[in-house]
Design a protein that fits this description.
By secondary structure, the chain is an alpha+beta fold. The chain has one domain: Macrophage Migration Inhibitory Factor (2-Layer Sandwich), CATH 3.30.429. The strands form two sheets. A two-stranded parallel sheet has the order 1-2. It has a two-stranded antiparallel sheet with strand order 3-4. Strand 3 and strand 4 form a beta hairpin. The relative contact order is 0.23. GO terms for molecular function: isomerase activity. Pfam families: Tautomerase. This is 4-oxalocrotonate tautomerase.
Length: about 60
């Protein structure tokens, strides 16, 4: 059974439901099977670095 892992910023529960539903529909269509596991891994901005800077610091500079 395929496992799909999505890593990204935190989402509210409704967005997670939408994300899982959409990914499942596409993956099950392509694989031709019903059993798909989807894991959401959320990362806080203080735990993500881009180009040598923490994401939380980049977000502060945009304000």
């Amino acid at each position: 059974m395929p496992t799909i892992i999505v890593e990204g910023p935190k989402l509210d529960i409704e967005k997670k439901r939408e994300l899982v539903k959409e990914i499942y529909e596409i993956a099950s269509k392509i694989y031709g099977i019903e059993h798909i596991v989807i894991i959401i891994k959320e990362n806080s901005p203080e735990n993500v670095g881009i180009n040598g800077k923490l994401l939380i610091d980049r977000e502060k500079n945009l304000e």
